[in-house]
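Re: the 389-residue chain
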Amino acid sequence: MGATAEELSVKATDMLARLVAFDTTSRLSNLALIECVEAELAKLGAPSWRVENSDGSKANLYATLGPPVEGGVVLSGHTDVVPVDGQNWTSDPFTLTRRGERLFGRGASDMKGFLALALAAAPDFVGLKRPVHLAFSYDEEVGCIGAPSMIREMAANLPKSACVIVGEPTSMNVVSGHKGISTYLVTVKGHEAHSSLTHHGVSANMAAIRLMHSLVELSEQLERDADPESPFDPKHATLTIGQINGGTAVNILARECVFAFDLRVPPDVDPVEVLEPFHAEVQAMDAALKSRYQDAGATIVKRSGSPPCRPEHDGVAERFVRRLAGDNGPPRVVSYAAEAGQFQEAGFSTVICGPGSIEQAHQPDEYVDISQIERGAAFMVRLAEALVQ
């Protein structure tokens, strides 16, 4: 006899407090959290495997609860969180704090609430006829960088699963699709000189501004080209410049300017095609700058890319998870990117369903409603019941 939904909700809240206490901001290591999860799984005798990054400072973790047979379910989530720097929190972001019917803390909604539910329910998954596989990744928040290596290992080493549930915050409603994301770094190198002698050098900032202006125009064009039938909000592909860094002093022609941008596209839009004219413009600028000064130039580098998740017509995952969630609503898609597209690309039937709201994610005083943890606990109980068959 497994835990009731009420008991599981209490256990998940306790586990969420433990997980929130780990500062797993993407720029930091997540190994302390991974070690905590490994210890919990070891108590159950559940095998788990790390898939580390290149220097061993971070790790994905996947595990099997139950028998190593086909037809199981993957519960997937990321361990990293976004920074709290400069945000006006009214309580310690790394201490889970209850105020009224809400639980506040960094990652409470995005997405340690789902991880806590999965771990709280883990003892009830051990004795099932079909397995539950846990898949906890690193560096999702900086481009879904960690998951691909883990997904490859899971596809190669585990019995084939029936479906994947990625627990991003959806208010426990089923989401069947999301946009893809690509991130890019543009570096413009100029030639330093006194700012009064513009003919003796070239400002990397001034050159970079021309490229950024082209991206602004492209973003406006993407909005004009939006498919009116698109289910996404916003309907169009979006492009934003998120970081800019250039120059050393106001009276020096800037030696270097670096800026980063992201492009988020619906499944029917090809990011390579969208950016082809911009790549050509960067190459042309590179040649023009080098013709003046050999140490000058311009480059564009793709930092990360994650495919969209396409709604699956009559998909196994959507049918199964809608039944567990009691969701009879219309099909849903989201504009944020997630690891669902990577699982789907690897051949897994995949949906997104997790506690909390994306509107709370990345905000100061991020929170998850206690009612969402309760709904998630009931979901996990129904999942265990379904896998007894």
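The chain has a mean pLDDT of 97.
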